[in-house]
Each structure stands twice: as C-alpha cells, then as structure tokens.
Design brief:
S-adenosyl-L-methionine, Alpha-Beta Plaits, four-stranded antiparallel beta sheet, binds S-adenosylmethionine, eight-stranded mixed beta sheet, alpha/beta, 20 helices, Transcription antitermination factor NusB, 4 domains, methyltransferase, transferase
C-alpha cells in the first residue's frame, strides 16, 4: 500500500496565476452575464497584471469566449455526456484548454498540464482526470483538422460550415449574407474581420484638438475620417492629454463618419438647432457638438438612462456652447414638432456590427432580440422625423447591418408617414469606397476597418 501521509505526498503544483485569472473572468462572463471587457480590465487591475502577462490573459479570455461555439462543437464529440449536462465550470475549463491547444502557440504538453493543475485547484481532483483525458484527445488534431471533422462540408451547407469554421451563430452568418447580398468569399472575409480585435481609433474633436496632436502622441492618421487617428499597437488612450481633457476621445472611425455625414448634408435655411435623440454615451453628440459649434449650431442630447446621460455630459464637457442634455424618452418628445434642423437617431440595436469589440456578444444575442427591438427603432425614427423641420434632415444610424434593423425600419416608417424621403447618403462621404447600392450606406469591418455602421439620410418634405 502506498504511503499517502502528507510528508510523503508529492507537493501539489500551484496553478498558473494568469490562467487562473483568465478562468475567473470567463466564469464571470458565462455565469453572470458579465461583459468580458469590463471584467477583464478590473481583473488585470486588481491582480496587477501588465505587459506580457496582461496580453496573455487577454488572449485567453477573448479567444476562449469568441470561439466558444466552435470549441463546443469540437468538445461535444469528445465528452461522453451532452455539453448541456456538463457542469458549467468544467465546460469553461475545457474551452479554455481547447483555445490554448488549437489557436494559441502554447505547447500541447504545457497546455494540458496547466489546465489539469488549474482544474484541480478550482474544481477538485476528480474533475482533473476528465480534463486531462478530453484535452489530450483535442490535442491530437490541429484546428483545421477538427473543422473538417465537425463542420458540415461547405458545398453541402455553406452557412453551417462558416458558422463552425468562423465561430458565428448560424443566424448571424445568414443575416450578414443577406446584408452583403452575397454568400461568396466576401462573407468569409467579414467573419474573419469579426474575429480580429479592432484598432483603437481616436477622434480629434474639431476646434478643440487636431489630428496632428494625436499623431505627436504616437497615433497615425486614419484613412477616411478627417478627425480620426489610430493608436497603433493598442496603447493607453487615457495617457494622451487631449483625450483625458475631453478635447479628443476614443471613437470608431465608422461612428465618426456617420456623424460627419449628417453634419455635411446640404440644408437650406436655418441650421442652428441639432438633436441627438439617442445620445448615450455621447461619442457622436460630442463630435456633432464640436462641428456644430464651428457653424453656430447647438445640440440637444436625449438619453433615458440617467447614468448614460451623465456619460453624455462628460463627453460634452470640453465642448463650449449651449448644449443641453435631457434625461428622457425619445419616443415622447417634450419639444414642439419640427423644432430641429438636423436630427441623429442612433437607435438601440443588436450591435451585430460591433462583434469585434465584444467577444461574448455573438453567443448571447438571439434573433428574438432583433425582433423585440424593431418597434422601438420604428418609434424613434418616427419621432426623429417629427422633430425635424420641413426641409431638415434625419440620420437613421445603427451599429448593425441586419436588414430588419436597417432598411426595413426605414422603409416601414417612410411608408407610414408620407412626409419624408430617402436621399442618397453616399455622396456625403465622397472619399469612402464601396458603400453599397444606395441610397443608404453600409460600412463594413472587412472593407473599411470600421464597425458595420449603417446610415440612411432622410429629408422631411
Ligand atoms: C446606439 S446607443 C447610442 C450611441 C451614441 N449615439 C453614441 O455615439 O455614443 C443607443 C442609446 O439609445 C438609448 N435609448 C434607449 N431607449 C431610448 C429611448 N426610448 N429614447 C432615447 N434613447 C433611448 C440607449 O440607452 C442608448 O444609450
């Protein structure tokens, strides 16, 4: 009989701290509906992880969450029970191990051993045997070999194949194909772009900061927006003085372009009162306020959630002028009909255009979310048109390319109202190529390097 007295037992290895932090963040996201970016930033701060450790931890968290559906398809064939019956902790440990084995350059032996040690520490000795056995099986093939094994063949079921090979739920692949009008190679490129973390893009708010100021701080000029600069290699925007003072901000180039397009739309007569009907957290409101200030226009920003209205105030703090932030419901205007000259309706949406930014979002969203948002999107656009004067312009904007949230909303509202027309928005961004067939425009991560922002320009008649 072996001697199991503490003196003779081999000392237990301690789990690798970075992997443990990553695992705990993933647990918060999957078990408490947390947001990966918020939970990760807090954990990196609390655990004082920086440099290579922080980068490793970020890749573990983001990659495991982003590729979750693909890893589940692989794991399903390597676990004797249905995954839904597996303890959620165990499933997260298996996903985390699979990510290291299949999509990171971690040595297989080290990845399995580290995950066994971590499992023993966080979930108990009995589970570590199963993790060991399953991960060893996963380690026997490459990512591409597993895809051939578990995904349908692309000739038989293209969307099924892409869903697994590119880690997007099938309904999202289908919605993107509809919006792109293609199921060809472009769809592949879009899904790939969604799997890459986005660049950090800054905005120099006009009249308050120059792009050159940002370039002096290490950024490089972006391609399309006259106000944009890209912080190469990540970097901490908070350390740039123009950003910390609110003269510049962090803002996707696509968001800058759609706000700029609204400001550039031709207008006859008064051009002094601008409205942002769905303003929180205020990135577009701040850019519009800065542009408007140079032209003698002031902006009113509406947001129903008090904490988000506070963010709008903070974003506007550096822009002088008579700007107003109203806490209220944009579908119930407290101002007379036709009060404004330009109106932005950047409505709540599914966010399918910003999947690069939120690794967990694609698995959380459902087609029902899209359907549920539809009435509010229509009411807000209707209210935006009612708020603009005759001859004034409305920009209907979403951060999703889903046709149910974009063109279908616009068509439905215009058909009901009969006092507004769609104008060609593409001419407002003359330097930006491939904006679609018009009259509305769609930006794309794989073409423009932006979030998939949609813009329809509507004029009240
Ligand atoms: C897509 S975000 C707007 C982003 C913002 N324009 C920016 O660039 O920072 C949509 C916003 O609409 C707000 N919202 C939700 N319901 C609303 C309503 N009934 N009226 C006005 N805004 C609403 C949400 O709270 C959210 O802050």
């Amino acid at each position: 009989m072996s001697d199991r007295s503490p003196r003779n037992r081999a000392p237990q290895r301690r789990p690798d701290r970075v992997r443990q932090v990553a695992y705990e963040v993933i647990r918060q996201v999957t078990s408490q509906d947390g947001y990966a970016n918020l939970a990760l930033n807090k954990a990196l701060r609390d655990q004082k992880l920086s440099g290579r450790d922080a980068a490793f931890c970020t890749e573990l968290v983001h990659g495991t969450l982003r590729w979750q559906g693909t890893y589940d398809a692989i794991l399903a064939g390597n676990v004797s029970r249905p995954l839904a019956e597996l303890d959620p902790e165990l499933l997260d440990l298996l996903r985390l191990g699979t990510h290291q084995l299949l999509r990171m350059r971690v040595d297989s032996y080290a990845a399995v051993n580290e995950m066994v040690t971590l499992t023993r520490a966080v979930s108990g000795q009995s589970r570590s045997g199963l993790v060991n056995a399953v991960l060893r099986k996963v380690s026997q093939r490459t990512f591409d070999q597993w895809i051939v094994d578990v995904a349908p063949h692309s000739d038989d079921d293209l969307f099924g194949f892409l869903s697994i090979a590119k880690a997007h739920p099938r309904w999202i692949v289908e919605a993107f194909a509809d919006a792109l009008h293609t199921d060809g190679y472009e769809l592949d490129e879009l899904l790939d772009a969604d799997n890459e973390p986005p660049r950090v893009t800054l905005v120099a708010r006009p009249g308050l900061a120059e792009v050159d100021d940002l370039i002096e701080s290490g950024a490089t000029r972006a391609q399309y927006s006259p106000y944009a600069a890209v912080l190469q290699g990540g970097g901490d925007p908070g350390k740039i003085s123009a950003v910390s003072a609110g003269r510049a901000g962090v803002q996707d180039e696509g968001s800058q372009l759609v706000a700029t397009a609204l400001a550039m739309a031709p207008l006859e007569g008064r051009d002094a009162k601008w409205l942002d009907l769905c303003a929180g957290p205020g990135g577009k409101a701040a850019l519009l306020a800065a542009i408007g200030r140079q032209r003698g226009a002031a902006i009113t920003a509406v947001e129903p959630l008090p904490h988000r209205a506070e963010l709008v105030r903070s974003n506007l703090r550096a822009v002088p002028g008579n700007h107003q932030v109203l806490v209220g419901d944009g579908t119930k205007p407290t101002w007379p009909e036709g009060s404004y000259d330009r109106v932005l309706a950047d409505v709540p949406c599914s966010g399918l255009g910003a999947l690069r930014r939120r690794p967990e979002a694609r698995w959380r969203r459902t087609p029902e979310d899209v359907a549920e948002l539809r009435p509010l999107q229509e009411q807000l656009l209707d209210s935006a048109i009612a708020s603009v004067r005759k001859g004034g312009v409305v920009a209907y904007v979403t951060c999703t390319p889903h046709l149910m949230e974009t063109r279908e909303v616009v068509d439905a509202v215009l058909a009901k109202r009969g006092d507004a027309v769609l104008e060609d928005a593409r001419g407002l961004l003359p330097d930006v190529p491939s904006l679609g067939e018009g009259p509305d425009l769609q930006l794309w991560p794989h073409i423009h390097g932006t979030d998939a922002m949609y813009l329809a320009l509507i004029r009240r008649t």
